[in-house]
């Protein structure tokens, strides 16, 4: 059985944006504000450092029943017993990840467009990250912004759970939820916020309002 | 039972140095010249690209009975069914790699000094890469050059198979073998050679002469 996960408000960490406050302190504040899922993303970190970071987050999240997802590094996810991995189109295939992590792991896949969706082998995929909704400075290799309409276009193609991602803040979160998806993923809106707890609360409020 | 491996002349690939000739063509020429083990190293490549590179090398090496080792990415090694992984001190632990790859995989570990050797948990490690023997431009984060004497200092501490690495060419290969190790690992001496086959032959000749 898959580890339970809730896409409602999905925090993706950024190493530079959390540097001043610290990774664990930022995530703890975000959890206090209502984050429901956390992805550790640090593409430049070495494996051993990522393992240490993931272990710290796992200890922090487990008492709250919040799942920890590791970006890209399936081997790191295995080493720390994370709940799952999130994979981009340039990463290992979802099937290769599943072969390492087993049937219980959560496997997420990034999809930018209906064409990319059509070209992806979705066997073993548990949810999709669809975006970027807006242009973002966080991820240099992200594609062109697709807007809430682009999210809706992928939504129409699949029953898989979807989280919109890319440049999402409280102002646009409602429109993304309005595209019919299960949640929104944010980076800067929480990691770069002066008050990550308040930022998470504002996002949760916007999501709740849009869900009606 | 471990996959068989022969450390005598261990080629570590460099993506920039093989770019003009191509990875597969360089490795094929090196194998024709007498390379006995190959490590795919491309620290900037994404997982999916690494998988494609590793598959191409595996197809090339398997008919020769030469083992393929993947640098750092244990998940990639698992995905392609490589014979093993080589880990630096900043990478996943050998034990974490073994847990993913199983009892048959070859697990190598880089060690720079007797102090680093003493600080390393060697359970599950099949061989050590000891160096850098000489200063090298290939690896920005390599430690200070230790010379053949430094290799001999680690040799004195363990019965594990050892390969000297770092700035090794045919001129110094004999001195490294003279330190009592099982083989030498090279990058530039083959990858940047005008004739990789001739370069490998020259290294094999130097190793044979030193073995007496």
TrEMBL record, chains A, B:
CDD domains: TMP_TenI. One of its GO terms (biological process) is thiamine diphosphate biosynthetic process. 4-amino-2-methyl-5-(diphosphooxymethyl)pyrimidine binds at residues 71, 110, 139. PANTHER family: THIAMINE-PHOSPHATE PYROPHOSPHORYLASE, THIAMINE-PHOSPHATE SYNTHASE. This is Thiamine-phosphate synthase. Condenses 4-methyl-5-(beta-hydroxyethyl)thiazole monophosphate (THZ-P) and 2-methyl-4-amino-5-hydroxymethyl pyrimidine pyrophosphate (HMP-PP) to form thiamine monophosphate (TMP). It catalyses: 2-(2-carboxy-4-methylthiazol-5-yl)ethyl phosphate + 4-amino-2-methyl-5-(diphosphooxymethyl)pyrimidine + 2 H(+) = thiamine phosphate + CO2 + diphosphate; 2-[(2R,5Z)-2-carboxy-4-methylthiazol-5(2H)-ylidene]ethyl phosphate + 4-amino-2-methyl-5-(diphosphooxymethyl)pyrimidine + 2 H(+) = thiamine phosphate + CO2 + diphosphate; 4-methyl-5-(2-phosphooxyethyl)-thiazole + 4-amino-2-methyl-5-(diphosphooxymethyl)pyrimidine + H(+) = thiamine phosphate + diphosphate. GO terms for molecular function: magnesium ion binding; thiamine-phosphate diphosphorylase activity. It comes from the Bacteria. GO terms for cellular component: cytoplasm. It holds the Pfam family TMP-TENI. 2-[(2R,5Z)-2-carboxy-4-methylthiazol-5(2H)-ylidene]ethyl phosphate binds at residues 136-138, 167, 187-188. Pathway: Cofactor biosynthesis; thiamine diphosphate biosynthesis; thiamine phosphate from 4-amino-2-methyl-5-diphosphomethylpyrimidine and 4-methyl-5-(2-phosphoethyl)-thiazole: step 1/1.
